[in-house]
Amino acid sequence: MPESTKAERGFIEPPRADNPRGKIRKVGVELELSGVTPEQMADAVTGVVGGEVKRTSPFESIVTNTELGDFRIELDADVLKNRGYQKRLEEMGIDIGEGEVRDNLEQVISRIAGLVVPLELVGPPVPWTELARLDAIRRQLHEAGARGTHSSPFYAFGLHLNIEASSLAAADILAVLRAFLLRYEWLMKVEDVDFSRRITPYVQPYPENYVAHVLDPEYRPNRRQLIDDFLGFTPTRNRPLDLLPLLAHIDRDRVMAAPVEKELIKPRPAWHYRLPNCLIDESGWSLAVPWNHWMSVEQLAHSPDELEAECRRYLETPGGVKRWLAGLLQRFWS
What we know:
The protein is α+β, with helices and mostly antiparallel strands. 45% of the residues lie in helices and 13% in strands. It has helices at residues 38-49, 78-81, 84-91, 100-113, 131-144, 170-191, 195-198, 208-215, 223-233, 244-250, 252-256, 288-301, 304-316, 320-333; strands at 26-33, 52-57, 60-64, 71-75, 119-122, 126-127, 159-164, 241-242, 270-273. Strands 1, 2, 3, 4, 5, 6, 7, 8 and 9 form a nine-stranded antiparallel beta sheet that branches. Residues 77-92 and 112-116 have low confidence and may be disordered.
C-alpha cells in the first residue's frame, strides 16, 4: 500500500500526462468552505489570476476574464441560487417581487445560510501543470480565515477534483476504476474522511457486489457493457468516485435513459473524485495532498501486473469469494 503523500512534495506528475488528443490533461477543482465572504473569495481569485467580478445575486458571483478561465462563487443550495424560495413564499401568499425588499431579504438569507450551507469556489478546467496557481488561491483563502470540514460538526464540506481522463478506451477506464476500488479503504484512511461526510448520501461506498463484479480478472467489458453494468448495479452519482459525468460524455442518451439524477449530471470526459475533506483552515494541507493521493490510484492503474495481482488478492481475502460469487450471479441472471 502506498504511503501518505505530503504537500511538500508538490504535485506528482500523472503516469499519462496528456489526454487522448495529445494535450496536457486538465483538472477542475471545487472547494466547499465557510468563514469568508463571497467578496473575499473573489479577491483571492483576482489577487492570483486577475479578472473581473460580476455578482449575479447575493448567492452567486462569477470572476471572468482571469488568466485561467471563469471562476464561480456560490452558496451551494439550488433553492437559493434559482430563487426557488420566492416561489415557496408566493405559494403562502407572500409576493416580495423585485427591488429593495427582495435584495435586503436575500442579503439576510445569504448570511444565515452561510452558517450551515457552504460557499463553493468552482474553478475552470486548467492544465494539471497549473495546479500550483490554484493552490495559491487556496492559500489566499486560508490567510483570509476560510474554514473547512473539521471546524464544525455541521460542515460536511468536501473538495472535488474533476480530473480529465487520459483515455476513453474501455480497458483504460476499467483499470482506473479497479485501482480506485482497491485503494478505497486506504484513501478513506489517509484522507481521514470526516464523520459528517461519511453519513451524508454523497460519498457512499460502492456496493460489494459491484466491487466484486469489476475486480473479477475475467471481466473485460466494452464501453457499452461497462456503462450498462454501472447503471445496473449502482445508478447514482452519490459515490466517492462519481462515474456518471464520464459515462454520460461517452454515451449521453444511454445514461440519461436510466433512473439517475439527470438534472445534476454534467457530461464531461473526467473522473469526478469527491472523497477528500476540505481542510483549507489547516496548516500543512494543500491541493497537492488530495491530488497526490489520486495519483496513487492512477499509478496502480498503469501497472497492469500489480493491478491484476491486487484484484486476485482482494477476491481471495475473507469475504472475497462471497463478493466474487455475488458478482458472478448478478452477471448470470442479468
